[in-house]
Amino acid sequence: MNVLLDEVSVPPEQFSPAPRYLSVALTNACELRCAYCYAPKHAAVLERERVLAWAVELDAAGCLGVGFGGGEPTAYRGFAQLCSDIAQSTSMAVTFTTHGHRLTPELVESLRGAVHFVRLSVDGVGATYERLRGRPFAAVVQSAGLLGTLAPFGINAVINADTVSELDDLAEFADKVGASELLLLPEQPTAETPGISGADSQRLVEWAAIARTKVRLAISRTGLEAALPTTEVIPGERPLDAHMHIDATGILRPHAYAPTGVSVGSLIMEAAQALREAA
Ligand code: SF4
User: Cα–Cα distance between 121 and 64 in angstroms, integer?
Assistant: First the structure.
């Protein structure tokens, strides 16, 4: 739990030097072939000891949470051990985003107590999901059931021409499987895909304006900054105070889509400082 005391004004020089949250692509490996995937396709993987050392350093510098992605983090060798080591060695929240198709009762058991929130990627429901992800929809429903025994979890959905007409269905699905949040991610452009169209973005914004979902709704504003109203979460907080991302080759970036970053040596806070100076 994070508690925001927003009646207390903190001068920027007293802000924690670490970002509030760090996302980490542990590996580029993933057996699915989603057309809109932005994960790099070259083989790359981070060493477990390095990631643990960075987590300990970030915790001491005031970071509140680390979120694993990829690629597919459950394809990472020693994934459960890494989560467990971080949960025991730091006070940070440990989260991960998964396609869910590698989850087994054994893996869920080994993650128990080591993970505080999970995001399950479900792009569309039924036949749409099966066409986009190439896996049975029943299998991801089963994964949601397994996750429900592990930790609070949310549903992530990429929104594009295929899924924008299924927003109501996705909200109903998220509620039905017991998710605590539905996070909508407007498809971002990659080398292979143009990203969500202007017309579909507009449909998403209009839907969100009147949606009355039972499940909590969250929307990534990337690409929709002008269309979605927002409030300043923490007054004075700059983007690099809120979030940084490490890719599977050990480059620290402002976010996963950023074209450039800083190579991380043994100390991640040195790289974080260099990233701030370059911004
Ligand atoms: S499941 Fe995620 S990492 Fe794997 S191909 Fe699809 S979008 Fe990429």
Answer: 23
Place of tokens 């597919």: 72
Calpha distance 60→178 (Å, rounded): 34
By DSSP bridging, strand 216-219 and strand 181-186 are: parallel
Q: How far is the CA of 206 from the centre of ligand 1 (A)?
A: 27
Bridge-based pairing of strands 251-253 and 243-246 is antiparallel
In Å, what is the CA distance from 50 to each residue of 57, 89, 170, 200, 213? 11, 14, 37, 41, 41
Identify the structural domains of the chain with CATH numbers, from first to last. Answer: 19-99+110-115+237-279 (3.20.20.70), 117-230 (3.80.30.10)
3-state helix, strand, coil in the chain (%, to 5): 35, 20, 50
Lining residues, ligand 1, CB within 6 Å: 30, 32-34, 37, 39, 70-72, 99, 121
Q: What is the number of the ligand 1 atom nearest to the C-alpha of 70?
A: 3
Pocket test for ligand 1, best of 23, 27, 28, 37 (most atoms within 8 A of CB): 37
| Burial of 65 from C-beta contacts in 10 A (0-12 / 13-18 / 19+) | buried
What spacing in Å lies between the alpha carbon of 119 and ligand 1's midpoint? 13
CA distance 208 to 226: 15
- Closest atom of ligand 1 to CA, residue 32: 5
pLDDT in tens, 181-217: 999 999 998 888 889 999 999 999 999 999 999 999 9
The pTM of the full predicted model, rounded to 2 decimals, is 0.94
Query: For residue 234, how far is its CA from the centre of ligand 1 (angstroms)?
Result: 31
pLDDT digits (tens, 9 = 90+) for 157-169: 999 999 999 999 9
